[in-house]
Amino acid sequence: MTFVDYLTELFYLIDTELEALNLRLRTRGPAPRLHDSEVITMELAGEFLGIDTDEGIWHFFRTYHAAEFPRLPEVDRTRFARQAADLWRVKQLLHERVLRRFPPDGLSDGPGAAFDAPLWVLDSFPLRVCRYKRAPAHKLFRGLAAYGYDPTAGSGAPGGRPGMMYGFHVHLRVRCDGPCLHFEVAPANVHDRPMVRELLPPAAAMPTAGAVALGDRHYWAPEGRAELLAVGLELLAPF
């Protein structure tokens, strides 16, 4: 499969599922030059290639794939990034819809399987909104972002304690074979432990056999073990 074939299949999947959602995204104003399916396709394909910025994705497809996205040269980087950001909820709904195409959530499908209950992994990573020294004057996400700890920060920021950052933590629930099942974003000063309940599916969607989740020591909370077992989750997070 060539990369163009991959783009075509990816666009077809996204466009079909977006049409099936039957969302009314815009009620007034001119229609965007790029279709929403095109923007999401470029985002996903760009991330697949390891391009992790809107500017990099815009520049790559504008340079090498203008034939596949003929109206992209008419759209500047700022407008592309704004349209991509405005579609965050649509992408979340598409993610939930595509997940239904996967087999049941880690349930064993034959004799000899290691687990009868789903096996998940819980983890989080830092999401900075600016450099640490710029945080006091930073206006973006004011009232939402917060100071917190970044275990990947090494020596830390000048003027702050080692590992300090300003922004958010992204919390993930991942299936044992790779697909991300759910994510939540919380201010950086929110501890990992209370986010466990936020990452779980609704009670009606919890597997009847219960579930097992692996987590690092930041999720270690013996006092909450019984409460999680009551909702069908055994959390293995040794200190």
Q: What do you see in this structure?
A:
By secondary structure, this protein is of the alpha/beta class. It has 2 domains: 3-99, no CATH class; 119-236, no CATH class. It contains 7 helices and 6 strands. Strands 1, 2, 3, 4, 5 and 6 form a 6-stranded mixed sheet that branches. Strand 5, helix 7 (225-230) and strand 6 form a beta-alpha-beta unit. It is globular and about 55 Å long. 22% of the residues are buried. Residues 106-115 have low confidence and may be disordered.
Write the SSE topology.
Elements: H1 3-21, H2 36-48, H3 54-64, H4 77-86, H5 88-99, E1 119-128, E2 146-149, E3 164-175, E4 180-187, H6 195-199, E5 211-214, H7 225-230, E6 233-236
Helix pairs in contact: 1-2, 1-5, 2-3, 3-4
Strand content: 15-25%
Mean pLDDT: 87
> What radius of gyration results from the CA coordinates?
21 Å
In sequence order, what are the helices and strands, one letter per element?
HHHHHEEEEHEHE
Computed structural class: alpha/beta
Short description:
The protein is α/β, with parallel strands linked by helices. It has seven helices and six strands, in the order H-H-H-H-H-E-E-E-E-H-E-H-E. Helix 2 crosses helix 3.
